[in-house]
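Progress report, Aim 2. The chain analyzed during this reporting quarter is listed below.
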Amino acid sequence: MTTRTHSLGFVVASLHRRIVARLSALTEPQNVMPGHFPVLRCLRDLKVSTQVELARIVGVEQPSMAATLMRMEKAGLIQRVSDETDGRKKLVSLTPQGRDMLVVMTASALSVYREAKAGLTEAEVGEFLRIARKMTANLEVERDDGP
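Predicted structure tokens for the chain:
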């Protein structure tokens, strides 16, 4: 084992890159990128949202969310309409094509998840998820308390 494999940041980043690459390979033929998946899922649950709210929930900066939404709108996955009470706000929602693509993305994500957890027990997967959630919460506290 190398020193890198003992580095939390390296291991997590490496796992993330591999998950994204596998998901991308499965969804690229449909012209959908892994970065669209969290937005599709949020809009499925929220029905309608704003760019600001989506950026906060997904955990990305506003410019990244703006670029993602622009690509998704061009692909016909979302629609944006002006808020009747505040014309400066745009309300974002899924299109029928976006809902269809969420089905494709979910099936692809489940396939990658099954592949990633091969050889692990359900208890091991549960423990990994518990620890990862705890570490994420620890860092969220830091971010929320920061400057």
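Residues 142-147 have pLDDT under 50 and may be disordered. The chain has two domains: 7-113, 117-147. These observations will guide the mutagenesis work planned for the next reporting period.
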